[in-house]
Amino acid sequence: LTTPAANEIEISLFGPGYGECLVVHLGGGDWIIVDSCLNESKLPVALAYLGELGVDCATAVKLVVSTHWHDDHIRGLSKVVRACEAARIVVSAAMREEQFLTLVDLLRGVAALTDSGINEWTEILETLSTRMATPGVKYLPPRIALSDMRVFQRVADLKTGVTACEIWSLSPSDEDAAHAREGFKFLAPKGDSTPEPLTPMGPNHTSIVLWLEFPDTKILLGADLEQVSSSHGGWSAVVGSTSRPTGLAQVFKVPHHGSQNGHSSDVWSKMLEPKPLSLVSPFVNGRVVLPTAVDVARITSLSKRSFVTAEPEAKRSRRKKSRNLADWTMLNQAKHVRSLPSGTGHIRLRKLPSSDWQVTTLGTARAL
Ligand SMILES: [Zn+2]
Q: Which residues of the chain have pLDDT under 70?
């Protein structure tokens, strides 16, 4: 593993099968982290990766974006926030809704929620309030993202050759942010029973889509945003906006794990260069497996090259199948049980000014 050059843009997409995290080098030693998932050692992949590169997360990471609070995008995010002391946290405008904060407060410390978005947010809010209260510690209030907001800007430095860079949030739309209030009702604990962790459903349409703009390239990170029926919500609102940055992106982090409900043909024709580079992280949870074969066919037909971080296979059902006594006995007796391919899938794209993207696949990642 080598560190990208000072003037080299890098996009790293990590996805172990359940979970997604993006780490982006903006050039000039500036990094951003988008969402979080854990590696096989249960550490946030972003921190593990930047640690291996010898990057000082405390100073080098400028933004930590939580596109939405579903389990597959938030595991380990509180550790990321704690480590990235100089980073501004960017959260969806849906998070401002009173219900969400009430919910976080209500569920604070519930042991059954060790893996949930709520627990991560409880810790994130604690980290932020500690920072705010500690003299001499720089506190940056979270940036509440809505559509068409510039959340980061860096001007070019002629001396070092570091280029200009802008990052925009293209969602949630005003309408989707307003509707989030409705969605939270379904997440509230039912009676006095154990509250259910936040599962990946529903509020994907409040997730933050990011637009990264450099002098010679543009990148669209689609989060889990879905297509919705209203023209003022989901991808329709993004494509139809008259106040978003213009231009066509060369690289597309395909939304919602390649799912059909995240697909908008207008995005491909109006926001992306013809045949872009497409990156997908799968979503494997029980019987839900994304992308499907149909999704893969659609994505590959629209892309020049496309990559997935891990095999979209139903791992859990395979494990269930082996849950009979004979299998367990065999597994327990075997001295060298071969584990599944380890190493979180990692697609790494790098680009020097005026050069093409160089793609490397590591761990379980492969071309589609
Ligand atoms: Zn997801």
A: 95-117, 181-203, 314-343
Whole-number Å distance, alpha carbon 241 to ligand 1 midpoint, is: 24
pLDDT score of 198:
43
Q: How far is the CA of 312 from the centre of ligand 1 (A)?
A: 13
| d(C-alpha 147, C-alpha 5), whole Å | 32
What's the 224 CA to ligand 1 centre distance in angstroms? 6
Q: Strand 88-92 vs strand 61-66: parallel, antiparallel, or unpaired?
A: parallel
Quick one: CA dihedral 315, 318, 320, 326, positive or negative?
negative
Query: Closest by alpha carbon to 92, among 117, 119, 115?
Result: 117
Q: What is the dihedral of CA 43, 127, 96, 189, to 10 degrees?
A: 70
Amino acid at 90: V
CB 217 within 8 A of CB 77: no
Ligand 1 centroid–CA 52 distance in Å is 26
pLDDT of residue 64: 98
pLDDT recorded at residue 329: 35
Residue 255 CA to ligand 1 center (angstroms) comes to: 8
In the reported structure, the alpha carbon of residue 102 is separated from the centroid of ligand 1 by a whole-number distance in angstroms of 24
C-alpha 197 to ligand 1 mean position (Å): 15
Q: State residue 330's pLDDT score.
A: 37
What is the share, in percent, of the chain residues with pLDDT greater than 90? Answer: 62
**Total-model pTM:** 0.86
Assess contact for 266 and 300: CB atoms under 8 A.
Answer: no
The pair of structure tokens assigned to 153 is 């800007």
For ligand 1, the distance from its centroid to the CA atom of residue 351, given in whole angstroms, is 26
Say if CB 89 and CB 115 are below 8 A apart: no
CA of residue 70 to ligand 1 center, whole Å: 7
Could you read off the pLDDT of 89-101 as tens digits, one per residue? Answer: 998 887 665 556 6
Give the phi and the psi of residue 282 in degrees, each rounded to 5.
-80, 170
259 CA distance to ligand 1 centroid (A)? 10
